[in-house]
Amino acid sequence: MVKERARILVVGGGYVGMYTALRLQKKLKPEIKQGKVEVTVVTPDSYMTYQPFLPEAAAGSISPRHVVVPLRRVLDGCRVVVGEVRSIDHAKRTATFTTLATEDEGAGRQQLAYDELVLAPGSVSRTLPIPGLAEHAIGFKTVEEAIGLRNHVIEQMDIASSTRDPAVRDAALTFVFVGGGYAGVEALAELEDMARYASRYYHNVRPEDMKWILVEASDRILPEVGEEMGRYTVSQLRRRNIDVRLHTRLESCADRTAVLSDGARFPTRTVVWTAGVKPNPVVAATDLPLTERGRLKCTAELQIEGTPHAWAAGDAAAVPDVTADTPGTETAPNAQHALRQAKVLAENIARSLHGEPLQTYSHKYVGSVASLGLHKGVAHVYGRRLKGYPAWFMHRVYHLSRVPTFNRKARVLAEWTLSGLFKREIVSLGSLEHPRAEFELAAGGKPPVDSDNDPKGSS
Fold first, then answer.
1. What is the spatial order of strands in the sheet that 174-178 belongs to?
2. How far apart are the C-alpha atoms of 270 and 266, rounded to whole Å?
3. Structural domains in the chain?
4. pTM of the entire predicted model
């Protein structure tokens, strides 16, 4: 039994936050019912996004609502607060946060006291001071960005189909992706596949009219699947007339022109930035120890180093990899580790409350899978390399097994089945981003003017 009443604060509702809270409400169910334990989850969104499905959501293979998991439904034994933690004073065991009602209330930031802290805010896009990047580029970390990008690509095809200006047409049909990791490669491959299919319904837009460019600063892409599979991926993308540029950086995207370090210039209305992530800024607004890269220093038991009653895992945590041959190696900030760390983290919190010894997080990385569009993929799992359809099938099976809740598994499987029987959807719903525009115009107001950084891209 828990020695005393424990208030557990979970910061973040992503992989680690949701799975930790979910396991805690199961492990500590009697104590929660008796009021001896209270689990509070503070998260900016009321849902957890299963990010490996974002490329398929962008391509229209999965409905956007099925790549997210509603936290209030799943965490019915926890208190879910939709808000943002702004700072943490662990010495005083308090967190300062804001909610959607903070501005209307006029009362300022609120404070929340806790006994045990789980800091799992995840990561944000790592950007560079590149001219035009903030104004024109779009990321690929959220479901909103994925669907906005899908609408944007289809809208660019509509623009190209309707214009007589070759410069406008060329810029509309040029798509630049920066970053050769999972997000960049899978997003580009899925969207190119979708756009290639959609072009058959345009009388004057052909697949060869479109330019798809992948920019990567290092010497290879998809390092997680190994060097051989990375080279295979490059060759497969180039066979699809995708321009893969290694050892190349984006130097500017101002004035709707992508300028690369190799001297190439591409007029474009689409720049997608997927060149890495960094810890959520909230970790810097704490009194907790950080590494040189700004991640939380953690022990192999997922406690924050030298800080009792504070725990962390996931993208924002530097967790020692006890399975590595080289001392000082940290676990990679990926979903595979995050899911498994969450289980150990919840187990250790429960053990700590019960006065039991803690477990060490130990998981050897078994491999990676990546989709390159419909029926295309690469995989490197348990030392075995797969290409093409077998790798794509393994990608789907693996992620279907990992997406949370039976409800989402069933819905995703149903959508995959239906998409195999019927044709792709090629409708752009970019107007959803401005739902009041038509009414405002009818009521005598001015329609909203899109800015250059609008994913809809109709400026």
1. 242-245, 211-215, 174-178, 270-273
2. 10
3. 6-125+278-353 (3.50.50.60), 133-275+367-421 (3.50.50.100)
4. 0.88
CA distance linking residue 237 with residue 212, whole number of Å: 10
Digit-by-digit pLDDT tens for the chain (459 residues) are 555 679 999 999 999 999 999 999 999 999 999 999 999 999 999 999 999 999 999 988 888 889 999 999 999 999 999 999 999 999 999 999 999 888 777 777 899 999 999 999 999 988 899 999 999 999 999 999 999 999 999 999 999 999 999 999 999 999 999 999 989 999 999 999 999 999 999 999 999 999 999 999 999 999 888 888 899 999 999 999 999 999 999 999 999 999 999 999 999 999 999 998 899 999 999 999 999 989 999 999 999 999 999 999 999 999 999 988 888 889 888 888 888 999 999 999 999 999 999 999 998 777 788 999 888 999 988 778 899 999 999 999 989 998 888 999 999 999 998 888 877 777 767 666 677 777 777 887 666 555 444 444 443
Residues 6+ apart with CB under 8 A from 276: 125, 126, 179, 181
